[in-house]
Amino acid sequence: MKPSWKISFLLVAIANLITFPALATSTTPNTPVEQSAAKEAEELCGKPTLDDLLQHKVKQGETLEAIAKQYQLKTATLMGLNPEVRNGEVQVGQTLSIPPIDGLTYRFKNDENYTIVAKKYNIRADVLFERNGCQRRPKVVFVPGAIWKPEALPFNSAIARGSENPSLIFQTGGYPLPYSVPVTSNYGWRMNPVTTIWSFHSGIDLGAPLGTPVIAAKAGRVDFAGWGDGYGNLVEIDHGSTGTRYAHLEAIYVSQGQSVAQGQQIGIVGSTGRSTGPHLHFEIMVPSGDGWVALDPAPYLNRIASIMTN
Q1: Of 59, 80, 234, 238, which residue is least crowded by CB atoms under 10 Å?
Q2: CA distance 188 to 199
Q3: 169 pLDDT exceeds 90?
Q4: Does residue 230 share a domain with residue 162?
Q5: How many domains does one find in the chain?
Q6: Does the residue 150 lie in any domain?
Q7: Same-domain status, 38 and 139
Q8: Does one domain contain both 92 and 164?
């Protein structure tokens, strides 16, 4: 729903009453103009998004990814709204809350308001206000379009880079996930599980659950971040003498040209592109006369994984 200029004006007018501390001391509009604008805005807004959730009962054979596709949502949206499936798995008989659009829930802190939260997620305050039914002082709001991110998984320690940009830093020693996981497909020639054609697999597949943080194996500059055809959501990082590639991500948290630190979260594990299930496709590349050439990551990953588990 796109508000007209008149509706937007009304929404901003009412939102201003709660987003500016000097005007937020009263919970009700004071002047006749404020009261009239509040009444009209509330009539235009309708129900808050969180009061308009569908309920989906998981059936036999369904996966979280399939359910998300059924409702044209990101898997991360369902994970954020339903904490019990944040491991990427659903159980028959479970009931999931399904929002009408992608987004996440956010609980207001004591000193926060619509303007602060809207700026944090780079959306318009009046849109946030409207999506939440023009409620003046809600405790929890739905932020449309925002992507839910998992908390750091426990491995050694995770630290925040700062309150303005809470990208997670994991002390992993160069492993692309917060903990070691089984290899589900090695580097080299194989029967492609999607195309069933004998082809060369230029990386290694790590069988991590949906939503697991994917982290930069080494500091560098993001050379590519976006859709990579069969790779799905793809991030490529240039480390100077080497490069790394992270494919089939559910969501990407970095942008092209951005500098990243070793251990910084760059996305979450998914199953986008040509993929049969959640995993991280990881490549190590070196420059050659014909461009980047992929090497077998197994010796590197085995060495790092053995350090992590000992």
Answers
A1: 59
A2: 8
A3: no
A4: yes
A5: 3
A6: no
A7: yes
A8: no
Q: How large a percentage of the chain has pLDDT more than 70? A: 73
Q: Give the predicted TM-score (pTM) of the model.
A: 0.53
Q: CA-to-CA distance for 118 and 210, rounded, in angstroms?
A: 28
Instruction: Give the confidence band of 196 by pLDDT, cuts at 50, 70, 90.
Output: low
| Rounded Cα distance, 51 and 122, in Å | 23
Assigned domain for 208 exists = yes
Greater pLDDT, 177 or 15: 177
Cα separation, 120 vs 21, in Å, equals: 17
What does the pLDDT read at residue 286? 84
Residue 63 has, within 13 A of its CA and on its CB side, a CA count of 12
d(CA 245, CA 216): 9
Residues 170 and 298 in one domain: yes
Residue at 94 is within a domain: yes
For every residue of the chain, DSSP letters joined together read ----HHHHHHHHHHHHHHHSGGGTT-SS--SHHHHHHHHHHHHHH-S-GGGS-EEEEPPTT--HHHHHHHTT--HHHHHHH-GGGTTS---TT-EEEE-SSSEEEEEPPTT--HHHHHHHTT--HHHHHHHTTT-SS-SEEEEETPPP-PPPP-SS-EEES-SSS--EEE--TT-SSSS---EEE-SEEEE-TTT--EEEE-SEEE-PPTT-EEE-SS-EEEEEEEE-GGG-EEEEEE-SS-EEEEEEEEEE---TT-EE-TTBEEEEEB--SS-SSSBEEEEEEEEETTEEEEE--HHHHHHHHHHHH-
- Distant-in-sequence, close-in-space partners of 80: CB < 8 Å, separation ≥ 6: 104, 105, 148
Answer yes or no: is 149 within a domain. Answer: no
Q: Please tell me whether residues 121 and 249 are part of one structural domain.
A: no
Report whether pLDDT(271) > 70: yes
Q: Is pLDDT of 310 > 60?
A: no
